[in-house]
Amino acid sequence: MDEQRGQGTATAEQRLAAQYAVAQVLAAGGPPGQAVPRILEALGDLLGWQFGALWRVDERGEVMQCTELWHAKGIPAIGFSSLTRNAVFRRGDGFPGLVWESEEPLWVDDLAGRIDLPRASVAARDGLRAGVATPVSLEGEITGVIEFFADTPRPRDDGLIDLIQAVGNQLGQFLVRREAEQRVHRSEARKTAIVNASLDAIITIDAAGRAVEWNPAAERMFGFDRSIALGRPIADLIVPGELRDRHQRGLADLLTGREPRLLGRRIELIAVRAGGERFPVEVAITQVDLPGPPLYTGHVRDITERVKAERAGRDLAAIVESSDDAILSKALDGTILTWNKGAEQLYGYTAEEAVGRPASVLAPPERADELPQILDSIRRGERVSQHETVRMRKDGSLVEVSLSVSPILGPYSQIVAASVIAHDITDRRRAEAQIAHLAFHDPLTGLPNRLMFQEHLDVALARAARGGLGVAVLFIDLDDFKLVNDSFGHEQGDRLLRDFGTRLRAVTRATDIVARQGGDEFLVLVPDLELSDGPGIEPRAMEVVQSIETKVRSVLDAPFSVAGSDVNLGLSIGVSIYPIDARDRHELLRNADTAMYIGKGRGRPSMHRESADARGRLATIQRLRRAIDRDELVLYHQPLVELATGNVMGVEALLRWNDPSIGTVTPADFIPLAEHSGLIEPITNWVIAAVCRQAREWEEQGYELLQSFNLPPSLWTPSMIARVIETARAEDVPTERLMIEITESTAMVQPGRVAQVLASIRSSGLRLAIDDFGSGYSSLSRLRQMPVETLKIDRSFVADLPDDSGAGAIVTTIIDLARSLGIRSLAEGIETEEQRRFLLDHGCELGQGFLLGRPAPAAELDVRPRTR
To answer: Cβ distance 580 to 752 under 8 Å?
Structure first.
């Protein structure tokens, strides 16, 4: 039986050789990763086993894993090796786990059929049959398992088991010792690496103050290599010369224990580099806890940048605190964190009142949504620049500000808060408003200027074009305003213009635009007039324009106070209406301007010689104003004669002024003054009343005479036609007895207004004559549409008859034109029989002139029928 057991077992010589080989490996040392595989190989080769492995218990003592393995050359144990490398066993699991649990060696004669061992089938497949495993222990504690496998079944060999177990115990001691050495080595290497990697200079000195440690950071900071620094007094290396005595005293106090407060504290000092550059450092000194003479380690940090930053921070804080702008910071939830003096001045809150409060106290209710939106932008890392808004002060008043809000970053570049700079832009806004006002307003009157008027006009015209509406422009000129400047000075003239602008604004609608064109010229824009489907204007729209014009004229009812004197001025108004009179802005303004100038009667003879003096002209205006009330105006009448019979078929009323101071004044001398001073309308009203009274008297005497009178261009309005009709009815005079004379130019301008005037004339039976025909400009198509009864041939053509062939051709053309249109022709200024005969021969029906009858009062005029 002993012989049987000895088959396949290791011999004594083999065991001895194996022990010797293991001892050599252990004596040679080396890291466990090299020593263990050599031990497994020595045992396997000498004892005839083909596979060996070392299993180690993990640090937590929960599982066991293979750390090293070996297999003989030529053994195809790839699958088993891989499985072993990756296997993990707990106590009682698998071959190693069973040994770990029993703490006893385990021998398996033949792995075939051992289903309780997870690796058995793979081992048998790779040609491994027998197996033995023993614990690796240290001081009675299992730290691992060593196992071997053979390619043939083998009976148990207790001697081999003892050998392997002894080797395992030796191996355990070796591993523990080597791991302890490695830990120490790693610890020292780690400490050295930490010291060398430190950004702070780490310097160790002995009791004599000499450097015994000098890390790379110290080399970089002070400029001395380690080889140079070690052994030299630290004072010679880093302490400025004038501070070395103080350093030596401090070191002596530290060594004798008189200054223990130096230890463990951070001290700010001035150090010097190898090149002589001084710089600030922060030093923390600790005593090295080792036996022997005392050692001290100093951790030195270059604080140059920090000192600069602190200085910059102090400078910035001073700048922030002294800034006139409000500078504050707030958390991302809107809480105010900091608050400078500028913020106190701008918002009225002290820092104690503001810090800790929500920034929403600064936002008026209508701006409350702004703060969350701004903070959302800050959270996204966006900057809000020059955001102009309104903020609320402590007293509730509002202030316009420009905000610049920026993210504040934390130590890890995360957004932690927001900085806010608020600049008071009240003065800037006021200046901008003033500039804008000056750009679009007249500096003298404060009214819109021409530029702003044109912008409003463009808008009104665009709206009118879209909505089928009308737009009216009134062009207004103060007549004889120059008299005020010449008489009282420009300062008084400016006051009058401001007063006039105020009066205009007071009598116009809120939707109308009153502007100063320049000088003594003003503009009124009347937008949104309703138009009819036909060519004319709706009565209501025309009433609006006429009402505004009447109100504009009424502002002159009260005199202006100029230098303590009452001054009465007149005005001229030109009206143009889109789309009746014009199709665009330029034409609309041009037509209104033209109408105003025609109304002023430019180019007429000069006024009375007394009016050459400015103050004299003002005095004449005042006397003329009183002349109406004092009944100083009289009518003269000049016969309108049928050239064929010599009978008087009518008369033209001609105005005279019996001025008590200078005598009779003809219309040529005072009518222009009346037109310029605003007196033309009351004078015309007086003329209409006087004409109607005289017509009624002649009718009562049995004379059915046509009464003709001149209507000034400025009064060619529907309201004046209405007054003529109303006065005729009041005097019980048929309107057919009245003939209104207007100049050729007046009849041709302002077609929008003319349309309604002509409609009133047609419906009432009034007669219409075109005066001075041929001296102005005419549109034959428009003339054909007008209810004209008489064309009066201008006297300038009649004066040269019959000798001037050119004048003759013009006169005969006018006569023929009138005849073709069914209109009577009347020649003015007939003074010779030759002129009368020429006109009669060429078909002219009516005549007027000194040959046929001079102007005379009604009582002196012979209007009885006559025969030739």
So the answer is: yes
In terms of DSSP bridges, do strands 130-138 and 141-150 run parallel, antiparallel, or are they unpaired? antiparallel
Residues near 536 by beta carbon (within 8 Å), at least 6 away in sequence:
580, 752, 755, 756, 759
Q: Is the alpha carbon torsion for 45, 46, 51, 53 positive or negative?
A: negative
Cα 665 to Cα 682: distance, rounded to the nearest angstrom: 18
Whole-Å CA distances, 146 to 40, 161, 441, 732, 833 = 9, 11, 107, 150, 164
Say how far apart CA 296 and CA 260 lie, in whole Å.
12
- Tokens 């005029």, residue located: 861
Of 544 and 859, which is predicted with more confidence? 859
Report the pLDDT value the prediction gives residue 611, as an integer from 0 to 100. Answer: 32
Q: What is the pLDDT of residue 7?
A: 41
| d(C-alpha 500, C-alpha 553), whole Å | 11
| DSSP for residue 609 | G
Chain length of the chain? 868
Q: Where are the beta strands (DSSP E) in 587-723?
A: 633-642, 648-659, 663-665, 706-710
pLDDT digits (tens, 9 = 90+) for 579-610: 877 788 888 888 888 777 766 643 333 323 33
pLDDT tens string 628-653? 788 889 999 999 999 999 999 999 99
Q: Give the contacts of 203 (CB within 8 A, at least 6 positions apart).
A: 211, 213, 214, 215, 218, 234, 238, 297, 298, 300
Q: What confidence tier does 514 reach under pLDDT thresholds 50, 70, 90?
A: very high
Cis peptide bond prior to 579, omega within 30° of 0: yes
Torsion of CA 638, 644, 649, 654, to 10 degrees: -20
Sheet holding 295-302, edge to edge: 211-214, 201-205, 295-302, 278-288, 266-272
Residue 693 CB neighbours (<10 A): 15
d(CA 78, CA 257): 70
Quickly list DSSP for 315-332.
HHHHHHHH-SSEEEEEET
Asked if the model's pLDDT at residue 5 lies above 60, the reply is: no
d(Cα 473, Cα 587) in Å, to the nearest integer? Answer: 11
Integer-rounded Cα Rg, in Å, for the chain is 62
Q: What's the CA gap between 146 and 57, in Å, rounded?
A: 12
| Percent of the chain residues past pLDDT 70, beyond the cut | 86
Q: Indicate the DSSP class of residue 559.
A: P
- Dihedral sign computed on CA atoms, order 705, 710, 716, 721: negative
In this predicted model, what pLDDT tens digit does every residue of 395-448 receive, in sequence order?
A: 999 999 999 999 998 878 889 999 999 999 988 888 877 777 777 888 889 899
φ and ψ of 477, to 5 deg: -130, 130
Question: Are the beta carbons of 479 and 602 closer than 8 angstroms?
Answer: no
Residue ranges in 239-360 assigned as alpha helix (H): 244-256, 304-322, 341-347, 351-354
The angle, 0 to 180 degrees and rounded to 10, between the axes of the packed helices 833-841 and 805-820 is 40
Q: Are 714 and 552 in contact (CB under 8 A)?
A: no
The CA distance from 678 to 674, in Å, is 6
User: pTM of the full predicted structure?
Assistant: 0.41
3-state secondary structure 451-466: HHHHHHHHHHHHHHHH
Rounded to whole angstroms, the Cα distance separating 274 from 685 reads 113
Low-confidence winner among 145-154, 214-223, 657-666 (lowest mean pLDDT)? 657-666
Q: What is the distance, to the nearest Å, from the Cα of residue 794 to the centroid of all Cα atoms in its chain?
A: 66
Convert the pLDDT of each residue in 745-762 to its tens digit: 666 655 556 767 878 888
Instruction: Please state the rounded mean pLDDT for residues 457-485.
Output: 88
Two structure tokens written together for 790: 């008489």
Looking at residue 724, its amino acid is: V
Contacts of 211 (CB under 8 A, 6+ apart): 203, 204, 205, 229, 230, 231, 232, 233, 234, 237
Question: 25: part of which helix (H) or strand (E)?
Answer: helix 12-28
Tokens linked to 402: 């420009």
Neighbours of 795 (CB within 10 A): 16
- What's residue 6's pLDDT? 38
